[in-house]
């Protein structure tokens, strides 16, 4: 069944004149596409591909603490089913010679030849894609190269890895470890597969899956060990705690998001796309489906443009990007107070690890957490990253070209936040912390060029960590 989209096709009629009487934007043969598509932005569009190091001058890194979003994934089952049904729209467009006045000859040929990618099958809904495996493997390789002292095989060391109980985060963790330590993926948590994850959800199993002290192979010291942990949602008070927070989950969509979706910018996107394709009865849901097809196809195969991106102009892509920015701003960003409160638990975890290092406590060389876009934004919000001087609203899209809160650049696929704790030979401070967002130096308020004095940073972050309180999850929040 095609659902609403196929019903729309039945209702289609050809339009000889403009839908709203407004000039219609068309494409040129040499068009370059707008890169940023929110949470479905490829990591390579954000990472600046510079080499360098994460080690500070006159300092020795003693631990890296990382929060990592899973890599490129497939759409959910329902979106996959709807994308597969886009063949009906394609056939109509080609048969009736619509899109004729606004598509270049290359775009028309690409659309005519379009077929859904064969890997888009419902059974892979939200699973890590092959590109996602590459995302995490290449990230691991670069982190290892930028922090060679932490991965030195000749030194006794340990590493801690933790993931939420989803296929995409566990597979991301596997890909990262495989490349960072040259371990066969078959030796990394072999007991965790799709079947076991399904049983965890079905039976509401609460026990964490933990494997400790996995010896590395040839290259590693025999004293090197890794601890893996996979935590079911019902037990997760760190990487997916928002799913256990009733007041957070029950809020619904914020009124600003609803107002923007029903506002003039989205109305113009709907009208112009409708006119461009000569499809008079498409809905906003259809627009979002075209957009999802565009951005998922573009992330799954980086060197192959998606014909569904041809449906939109760059300005229309910016409108759709802003809609998702607005959603995350209120859902898990600075727009609502509860978000920073939920993000504080990861700050407390980071502070606790670094505090132990300060007194020479027994700590792993690396702490790596694999999670999701919402936890990333909750954490960044608690850290005060990407604060906007003016709140994002339904009515100020045109004033927000240079906004700090841009989800495409904050949490693309494989987004990562790294904090590196250093012991330094310095007259001003013994301990320093350097921050990185998507491998780029990140300046936190009160720090210089992304480097913080630990004593001062501990006071600032310690105050946040001390106020973590899940009581907020019992309060009723009105959007």
Detailed description of the structure:
- With 479 residues, this protein is α/β, with parallel strands linked by helices.
- The chain has a single domain (40-155, 234-365, 374-473), classed as Rossmann fold (3-Layer(aba) Sandwich), CATH 3.40.50.
- The protein has helices at 4-10, 77-84, 86-95, 105-112, 130-146, 167-181, 194-203, 246-249, 255-261, 264-277, 284-300, 314-331, 337-358, 373-383, 407-410, 454-465; strands at residues 59-69, 158-164, 209-211, 225-231, 366-371, 416-424, 431-437, 440-441, 451-453.
- Strands 1, 2, 3, 4, 5, 6, 7, 8 and 9 form a 9-stranded mixed sheet that branches.
- A hairpin with a 2-residue loop joins β7 (431-437) and β8 (440-441).
- It is globular and about 70 Å long.
Note the main attributes of this structure.
alpha/beta, nine-stranded mixed beta sheet, signal, 479 residues, Rossmann fold
Look at the structure and give the mean pLDDT. Answer: 86
Gross morphology is globular
State the distance separating the first and last CA atoms: 35 Å
Counted up, domains total: 1
Protein name: Multiple inositol polyphosphate phosphatase 1
EC number: 3.1.3.62, 3.1.3.80
Keywords: Cell membrane, Disulfide bond, Glycoprotein, Hydrolase, Membrane, Signal
GO cellular component, one term: plasma membrane
């Amino acid at each position: 069944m095609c659902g609403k989209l196929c019903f729309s096709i039945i209702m289609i009629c050809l339009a000889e004149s403009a839908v709203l009487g407004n000039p219609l934007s068309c494409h040129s043969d040499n068009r370059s596409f707008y890169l940023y598509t929110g949470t479905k932005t490829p990591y390579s569009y954000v990472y600046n591909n510079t080499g360098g190091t994460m080690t500070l001058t006159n300092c020795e890194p003693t631990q890296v603490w990382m929060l990592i979003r899973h890599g490129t994934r497939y759409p959910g089952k329902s979106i996959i089913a709807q994308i597969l049904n886009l063949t009906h729209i394609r056939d109509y467009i080609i048969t009736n010679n619509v899109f004729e006045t606004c598509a270049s000859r290359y775009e028309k040929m690409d659309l005519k030849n379009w077929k859904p990618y064969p890997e888009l099958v419902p059974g892979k809904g939200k699973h890590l894609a092959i590109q996602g495996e590459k995302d995490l493997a290449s990230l691991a390789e670069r982190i290892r190269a930028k922090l060679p002292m932490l991965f030195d095989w000749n030194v006794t060391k340990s590493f801690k890895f933790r993931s939420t109980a989803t296929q995409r985060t566990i597979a991301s963790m596997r890909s990262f470890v495989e490349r960072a330590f040259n371990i066969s993926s078959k030796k990394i948590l072999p007991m965790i597969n799709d079947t076991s994850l399904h049983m965890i959800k079905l039976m509401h199993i609460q026990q964490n899956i933990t494997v400790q002290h996995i010896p590395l192979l040839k290259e590693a010291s025999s004293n090197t060990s890794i601890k893996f942990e996979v935590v079911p949602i019902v037990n997760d008070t760190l990487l997916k705690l928002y799913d256990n927070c009733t007041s957070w989950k029950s809020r619904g969509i914020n009124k600003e998001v609803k107002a923007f979706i029903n506002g003039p910018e989205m109305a113009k996107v709907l009208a112009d796309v409708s006119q461009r394709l000569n499809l008079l009865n498409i809905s906003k849901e259809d627009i979002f489906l075209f957009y999802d097809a565009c951005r998922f196809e573009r992330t799954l195969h980086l060197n192959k443009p998606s014909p569904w991106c041809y449906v939109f102009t760059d300005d229309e892509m910016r409108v759709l990007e802003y809609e998702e920015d607005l959603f995350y701003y209120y859902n898990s960003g600075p727009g609502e107070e509860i978000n920073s409160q939920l993000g504080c638990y990861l700050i407390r975890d980071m502070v606790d690890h670094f505090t132990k290092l300060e007194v020479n406590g027994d700590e792993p060389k690396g702490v790596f957490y694999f999670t999701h876009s919402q936890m990333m934004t909750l954490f960044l919000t608690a850290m005060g990253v990407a604060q906007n001087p003016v709140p994002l609203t339904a009515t100020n899209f045109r004033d927000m070209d240079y906004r700090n809160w841009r989800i495409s650049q904050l949490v693309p696929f494989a987004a990562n936040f790294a904090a590196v704790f250093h012991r330094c030979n310095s007259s001003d401070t013994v301990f320093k912390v350097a921050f990185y967002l998507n491998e780029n130096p990140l300046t936190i308020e009160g720090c210089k060029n992304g480097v913080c004095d630990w004593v001062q940073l501990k006071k600032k972050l310690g105050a946040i960590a001390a106020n973590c309180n899940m009581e907020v999850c019992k309060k009723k929040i009105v959007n």
